[in-house]
C-alpha cells in the first residue's frame, strides 16, 4: 500500500515535467520527421515525396563533407579538449591562490559568449591585421603565413583551436572536482606504501576518476555534434561549404534556400546519427567494463 | 545512470534542432471602437537618411490620421526576410510589409497571401505612369500588379579613390585591359587594387559577377538560361565569364583572405585608403558619405565595370533590381484596407518617392533631383544612372537553391575551383528548380 501510494505520488509529481518535456521535445522531433517526407518551401502546399529528401541527402556531397567536418570536430574535441583538460587538472587541482587563478584563466572562455570568442579568433586569423600572421612574420616564418579562414582546404582546421580553447575550461572544472573527491585516506595509504609521482597518477588517480572521464567524453561527443554557433559566426559554413557542419547544413538548407522539407529531413538524419554515435560509445564503454 | 545520460544527450541534441525553430508572433488586427488598426513591418531601423525619412512619413501619417492606429515594427533586413517566411508558413501576415520583387513576390502570390493593387494604380494614373520602364515587372504576376518599387538598387559600381589613381599615374579603367594594367600597377606598389569581403557569400555574385557575366553573355542568354529554355549554364560563354572572374582573382585584384572578411571590413579597407577601388552596390554610398574620412570621401568617384571586348552584352549597363515594395495582405478589406492603402500611398506614392530621393537613395520613379540639397557624390551617382541601364542581378532571377550554389561556387572559384565544375553545379540546381 505504502509502495503503491509512493509510486502514485512520484507519478503525479513527474507528470507536469514529462508532459512539458514531451510537448516541447518529442512532438517537434516527430513533426520534423514528418515534414521530412514533404517538398515544402514554407509557403503554400506541401507535396508528399516519400523518401526523396533522404535520397537527396545521401547523394549530396555537401552532406558528406558536413559529416566529415563534424567527425573532425568530434575527434578534435575528444582528443584535444579531454587530454589537455586532464593534464591541466592534474597540474592545477590544489586550492592554492596560483592554482585558483590559473584555473579561472583557463575557465574564462566558458563565460564568454560564443559570439565574442568568434570575434576574438576572427581577429587573430584576420588576413590583414591578424595577430597570428603578424607573429609568424616577426619570427621570420613568412612561408607559414596562410589565409586561415579564407582557404577552403585549411579553414576547418583553423576552427579547431578556438573550439578546443573555448571548452577546455569546462572539462578542467569537472576533472578538478573529481580529483578533489578522491578520499584523502587513499592518498595517505599511498604515502605509507611509498607510492608517489607518476606511479600514483597512473595507478591511483586516473582509475579513481575513470567514470568522470567517461561522462566527459560523452558530453564532449554530443557537444561537438551539435556545434553550430562558433562556425556560424566565424565562417557561416563557407568558404564554398568548406566548414559546413551538419547543423549549419541544416540551417542553410532551411533558412537560406527555404527548403523546409529538406531541412527537416536533415534534422532527422542528425538525430539518427547522434543516437548511433552515442549508442556506439555507450556500448564500447560498457563492453570494456564487462571485460575488466 | 546510463539511461539518464542518454536522455540528457538526447535533450541536448534535440534542443539545438529546436533552437532554430522559434516562431513568429501573430499580429493583432482587431479594431477598437471606431479606430482602425493596421500593422506594418519594415526594415527602416537604421540611422541612415532613408530609414529616418521613412519613419518620419509613418509618424506624420499617425499624426494626420488620429482615427487610424498604425502598429509599426522595424526589423533588420535579414531578420525581416526570415520572419516574413515564418509568418507566411503560418498564414499570419501583417497588413502591410516591406517585400522584395521577383522571387519573393511570386512565392507570396502563389501562396495566396497578397492582394493586387491594380485598382489603386488605375485610380491614380499620374502615379502609375511615372515609374521608369519595367519598374513594375518584378511585382507583376499573371498580369496583376501587387506592389510598386520604393527605390532602385543598382548592385554594381566601382567606387575609386582618385588620389591613389593619380599618385601612381593610373587611368580609371574603361576597358578590361586598362583594368588589368591598373591591378598590375597597384600590386607593384603594395596598394590593394580592389577591396573585397566575400564572407557573406552573396557579395561577389551581386556586386561584381552579375555585371561581368552580363557583359560577356548578354542579358537574353541569362534570361533563357534561367528558364532553361535554349541556353544552359554549361554553355561556353558562361564558362568564359567564370574564367574572366577567376583570372581577375589570379591577377591579384583582391586582397588576401577576402573569403573571411565581411562587407563592413571590406569598406573599412577602402576607408583607410589601403585600397584603390571597392566594388559595391548603390547602398554603399550612404555608408561612404557617413563614415569615410574626408580625405577618402573627397577623392571618391563612381563608375561602372569596364567593357569587355568581344562580349555579347552591352557596355553601358550595370546589374541591379528595382527596390523593395510594400505587400498588401490578402485578408485586408473594408475600412482597414482603405486605411492601409492610404498609408501605402503615403510611403510609395509621389511624396514618398520624393522623400526617398531626397534622402540620397535612387528611385525607380521619374522625379528631378534637387541638386542643391544632395551630397555631391550622390549627384554624381544620379547623373551616372541617367544613361546607365539596369540588367538583372543573378540572385533576383535564380531560385534560392541555385543562388546558394552560385554564391558558394564563386567563393570556390576565386580560391582554386574550376569554372566547369561551378557551371555544372549551377546548371544542375537550376534545371532541378525549373523542372518542378
Automatic annotation (TrEMBL), chain A:
Topology relative to the membrane: Multi-pass membrane protein
Domain ABC transmembrane type-1, first and last residues per copy: 67-281
Any Pfam family the entry gives: BPD_transp_1
InterPro entries cross-referenced by the UniProt entry: ABC_transporter_permease, MetI-like, MetI-like_sf
GO terms (BP aspect): transmembrane transport
The keyword Cell membrane appears for this protein: yes
Organism: Paenibacillus campinasensis
Gene Ontology CC terms, in alphabetical order: plasma membrane
Protein's UniProt name: ABC transporter permease subunit
PANTHER family (UniProt xref): ABC TRANSPORTER PERMEASE PROTEIN (PTHR30193), INNER MEMBRANE ABC TRANSPORTER PERMEASE PROTEIN YCJO (PTHR30193:SF37)
Subcellular localization(s) per the UniProt record: Cell membrane
Record carries keyword Transport: yes
Similarity comment: Belongs to the binding-protein-dependent transport system permease family.
Membrane-traversing stretches: 9-31, 71-92, 104-124, 154-180, 260-279
Domain of life, source organism: Bacteria
Keyword annotations: Cell membrane, Membrane, Transmembrane, Transmembrane helix, Transport
UniProtKB/TrEMBL annotation, chain B:
Highest taxon above the source species: Bacteria
Keywords of this entry: Cell membrane, Lipoprotein, Membrane, Palmitate, Signal
InterPro entries for this protein: Bact_solute-bd_prot1, SBP
Stretch forming the signal peptide: 1-19
The UniProt record lists the keyword ATP-binding: no
Annotated transmembrane regions: none
Name of the protein described by the UniProt record: ABC transporter substrate-binding protein
Amino acid at each position: 500500500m505504502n509502495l503503491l501510494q509512493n509510486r502514485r505520488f512520484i507519478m503525479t509529481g513527474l507528470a507536469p515535467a514529462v508532459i512539458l518535456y514531451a510537448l516541447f521535445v518529442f512532438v517537434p522531433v516527430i513533426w520534423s520527421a514528418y515534414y521530412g517526407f514533404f517538398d515544402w518551401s514554407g509557403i503554400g502546399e506541401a507535396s508528399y515525396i516519400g523518401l526523396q529528401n533522404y535520397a537527396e541527402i545521401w547523394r549530396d556531397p555537401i552532406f558528406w563533407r558536413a559529416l566529415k567536418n563534424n567527425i573532425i570536430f568530434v575527434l578534435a574535441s575528444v582528443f584535444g579538449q579531454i587530454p589537455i583538460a586532464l593534464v591541466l587538472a592534474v597540474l592545477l587541482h590544489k586550492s592554492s591562490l596560483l592554482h585558483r587563478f590559473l584555473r579561472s584563466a583557463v575557465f574564462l572562455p566558458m563565460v564568454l559568449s560564443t559570439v565574442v570568442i568568434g570575434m576574438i579568433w576572427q581577429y587573430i586569423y584576420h588576413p590583414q591585421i591578424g595577430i597570428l600572421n603578424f607573429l609568424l612574420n616577426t619570427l621570420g616564418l613568412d612561408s607559414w603565413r596562410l589565409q586561415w579562414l579564407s582557404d577552403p582546404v585549411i579553414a576547418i582546421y583553423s576552427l579547431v583551436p578556438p573550439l578546443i580553447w573555448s571548452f577546455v575550461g569546462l572539462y578542467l572544472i569537472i576533472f578538478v572536482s573529481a580529483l578533489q573527491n578522491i578520499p584523502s585516506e587513499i592518498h595517505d595509504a599511498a604515502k605509507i606504501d611509498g607510492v608517489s609521482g607518476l606511479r600514483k597518477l597512473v595507478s591511483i588517480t586516473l582509475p579513481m576518476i575513470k567514470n568522470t572521464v567517461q561522462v566527459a567524453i560523452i558530453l564532449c561527443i554530443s557537444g561537438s555534434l551539435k556545434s553550430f554557433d562558433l562556425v556560424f559566426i566565424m565562417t557561416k559554413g563557407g568558404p564554398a561549404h568548406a566548414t559546413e557542419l551538419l547543423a549549419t547544413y541544416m540551417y542553410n538548407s532551411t533558412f537560406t534556400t527555404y527548403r523546409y522539407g529538406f531541412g527537416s529531413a536533415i534534422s532527422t538524419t542528425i538525430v539518427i546519427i547522434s543516437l548511433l554515435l552515442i549508442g556506439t560509445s555507450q556500448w564500447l564503454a560498457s563492453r570494456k567494463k564487462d571485460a575488466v | 545512470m546510463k539511461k539518464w545520460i542518454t536522455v540528457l544527450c538526447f535533450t541536448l541534441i534535440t534542443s539545438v534542432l529546436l533552437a532554430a525553430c522559434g516562431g513568429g508572433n501573430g499580429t493583432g488586427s482587431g479594431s477598437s471602437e471606431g479606430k482602425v488598426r493596421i500593422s506594418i513591418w519594415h526594415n527602416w531601423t537604421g540611422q541612415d537618411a532613408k530609414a529616418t525619412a521613412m519613419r518620419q512619413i509613418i509618424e506624420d501619417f499617425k499624426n494626420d490620421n488620429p482615427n487610424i492606429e498604425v502598429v509599426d515594427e522595424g526589423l533588420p533586413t535579414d531578420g525581416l526576410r526570415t520572419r516574413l517566411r515564418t509568418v507566411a508558413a503560418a498564414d499570419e501576415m501583417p497588413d502591410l510589409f516591406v517585400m522584395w520583387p521577383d522571387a519573393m513576390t511570386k512565392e507570396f502570390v502563389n501562396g495566396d497571401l497578397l492582394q493586387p493593387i491594380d485598382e489603386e494604380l488605375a485610380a491614380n494614373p499620374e502615379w502609375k505612369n511615372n515609374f521608369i520602364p519595367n519598374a513594375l515587372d518584378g511585382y507583376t504576376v499573371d498580369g496583376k500588379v501587387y506592389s510598386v518599387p520604393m527605390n532602385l538598387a543598382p548592385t554594381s559600381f566601382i567606387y575609386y579613390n582618385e588620389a591613389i589613381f593619380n599618385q601612381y599615374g593610373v587611368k580609371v579603367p574603361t576597358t578590361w585591359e586598362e583594368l588589368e594594367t591598373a591591378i598590375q600597377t597597384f600590386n607593384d606598389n603594395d596598394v590593394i587594387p580592389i577591396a573585397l569581403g566575400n564572407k557573406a557569400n552573396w557579395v561577389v555574385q551581386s556586386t561584381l559577377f552579375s555585371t561581368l557575366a552580363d557583359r560577356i553573355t548578354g542579358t537574353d542568354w541569362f534570361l533563357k538560361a534561367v528558364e532553361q529554355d535554349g541556353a544552359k549554364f554549361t554553355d561556353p560563354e558562361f564558362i568564359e565569364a567564370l574564367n574572366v572572374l577567376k583570372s581577375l582573382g589570379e591577377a591579384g585584384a583582391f586582397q588576401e583572405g577576402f573569403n573571411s572578411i565581411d562587407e563592413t571590413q571590406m569598406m573599412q579597407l577602402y576607408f583607410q585608403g589601403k585600397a584603390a577601388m571597392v566594388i559595391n552596390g548603390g547602398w554603399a554610398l550612404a555608408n561612404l558619405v557617413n563614415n569615410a574620412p574626408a580625405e577618402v570621401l573627397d577623392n571618391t568617384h563612381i563608375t561602372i565595370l569596364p567593357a569587355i571586348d568581344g562580349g555579347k552584352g552591352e557596355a553601358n549597363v550595370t546589374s541591379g533590381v528595382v527596390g523593395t515594395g510594400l505587400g498588401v495582405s490578402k485578408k485586408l478589406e473594408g475600412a482597414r484596407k482603405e486605411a492601409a492603402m492610404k498609408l501605402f500611398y503615403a510611403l510609395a506614392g509621389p511624396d514618398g518617392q520624393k522623400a526617398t530621393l531626397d534622402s540620397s537613395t535612387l528611385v525607380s520613379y521619374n522625379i528631378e533631383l534637387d541638386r542643391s540639397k544632395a551630397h555631391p557624390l550622390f549627384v554624381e551617382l544620379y547623373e551616372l544612372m541617367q544613361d546607365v541601364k539596369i540588367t538583372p542581378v543573378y540572385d533576383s532571377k535564380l531560385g534560392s537553391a541555385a543562388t546558394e550554389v552560385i554564391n558558394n561556387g564563386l567563393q570556390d572559384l576565386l580560391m582554386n575551383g574550376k569554372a566547369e565544375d561551378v557551371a555544372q553545379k549551377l546548371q544542375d540546381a537550376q534545371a532541378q528548380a525549373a523542372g518542378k
